[in-house]
Amino acid sequence: MRKPVIAGNWKMFKTVGDSVATAVALKPLVANANHCEIVITPVFTALKSVADRLEGSNIKVAAQNCAAEQREGAFTGEVAAFMIRDAGCSHVIVGHSERRQYYSDSDEVVSRKTHAGLAAGLTVIVCVGETLEQRDQGSAERVVREQLVWGLTGLTASDLDRIIVAYEPVWAIGTGRTATPEQAQEMHAFIRRVFAEGHSEAAANALRILYGGSVKPDNIAGLMRKADIDGALVGGASLNAESFAQIVNYK
Ligand code: PGA
Q1: Which residues contact 74 (CB under 8 A, 6 or more apart)?
Q2: Ligand 1 pocket test, candidate residues 9, 96, 246, most atoms within 8 A of CB
Q3: Fewer CB near the terminus (10 Å): N or C of the chain?
Q4: What is the pTM of this model?
């Protein structure tokens, strides 16, 4: 049985104070949610304060990105994965399409960040997903396969326990246009097949694959009914404690 993961991606929203307030408001609303793992992802400056306030709760804290370099050094503006761990995080997101699009995170960089996260003991949420143009051209599967193969290159069997894949079609992010549960299921099943080819059937069966892109309280249940959808990466609707709690408590 794969335990679902509901992760909130707060992107570049909220001050430290607002982040802590949202996290504190969320805590009682999801205190009984044992059916899934809950992760929230504040901005870097708020990670430590939020993680401290959530200690002992069932909400885990993730960073939205990490440095590709594994050791400290002269890399102005970067934050190493071990520093993220040190701040109280258990997870890190890598390869989000906004990073790929606006900050030129290539497949190779995403792969290095994945390894950096794993080396620091973090669980890594690796994001993949095609643009609308690529979908319209019929190359969605090819693009996702390439991102997956790169993102997961060089991983050992023991690394795989700490890998989560998030399928986020770029055309569904922040647009209000969710993939239908059928469209998402189709790609999730494909991702599982690619994973089985690259690793093993057992690892593929254990892999959690999250859907992301305009997930809301009113569409989560339909998505979660699909066999290969093991959770969600939620942007806009995770910024508010009540709406994120409704998504967490989709059952
Ligand atoms: P959205 O963002 O839910 O606002 O579409 C999802 C994401 O970018 O992770």
Answers
A1: none
A2: 9
A3: N
A4: 0.97
